[in-house]
Specification:
The chain is α+β, with helices and mostly antiparallel strands. The chain has two domains: 46 residues; 136 residues, Ribbon (Umud Fragment, subunit A). It has one helix and twelve strands; from the N terminus they run αββββββββββββ. The longest helix has 41 residues. The protein is rod-shaped, with a radius of gyration of 27 Å. The N and C termini lie far apart (83 Å).
Length: 188
């Protein structure tokens, strides 16, 4: 004869059910977190890449060590900041002109697109910079002419080493600063 009563059996059965329910809830929560993390990683890589800024060619707009959010796309206008691949590196520069447009830069660093001065409130000093292309320069088909905001040190489309950017090199348009938190906000 057993020393256990029907009440003891019911309590043990209830304890086993509760333990099983707890394990299913933990397993379900973990699976949910894994799925959410996988979706977040896919979105980050495919739609909204997060990039870290290296160097000072875009200062004061973007400074070294900041993290920014980009959005994939292929439609850019003058003044947009884009990230693109160049020799296994990611560079960040500002769009100046599109395919077929003529770019000219005078000795004082004033930029003209199709003979119209480009308004550039985002730069703190104008400079011709490292320019070895013949000006005025027509942007080739399916290319974008880009320049850094710190014109005196930026190596960009003004130099044939980098040249104009092809569509397939472009990662996306920089939209938002996400780190450090004190600088959180849109990039202009």
């Amino acid at each position: 004869m057993s020393n256990y009563s029907a009440k003891d059996y019911k309590e043990e059965l209830e304890r086993v059910k509760q333990r099983s329910l707890f394990h299913r809830m933990v397993r379900s929560t973990l699976y949910g977190l894994i799925v959410v993390a996988a979706v977040a990683v896919l979105i980050a890589f495919l739609v909204l890449p997060v990039l870290r800024i290296y160097g000072t060619s875009m200062s004061p707009t973007l400074t070294q060590g900041e993290y920014v959010l980009a959005i994939k796309g292929d439609s850019f206008k003058t003044g947009d900041i884009i990230a693109f691949y160049y020799n296994n590196k990611v560079l960040v520069k500002r769009v100046i002109a599109d395919s077929g447009q003529w770019v000219d830069i005078d000795d004082d660093g004033n930029v003209y697109v199709n003979n119209i001065a480009v308004e550039e409130p985002y730069i703190s000093e104008k400079a011709l910079g490292d320019c070895n292309i013949k000006l005025p320069y027509q942007v080739p088909e399916n290319r974008i002419f880009v320049m850094g905001d710190r014109r005196s040190i930026s190596v960009d489309s003004r130099n044939s080493a980098i040249g104009c950017i092809a569509d397939e090199q472009i990662i996306g348009r920089i939209l938002f600063k996400i780190w450090p938190l004190k600088d959180l906000g849109p990039v202009r």
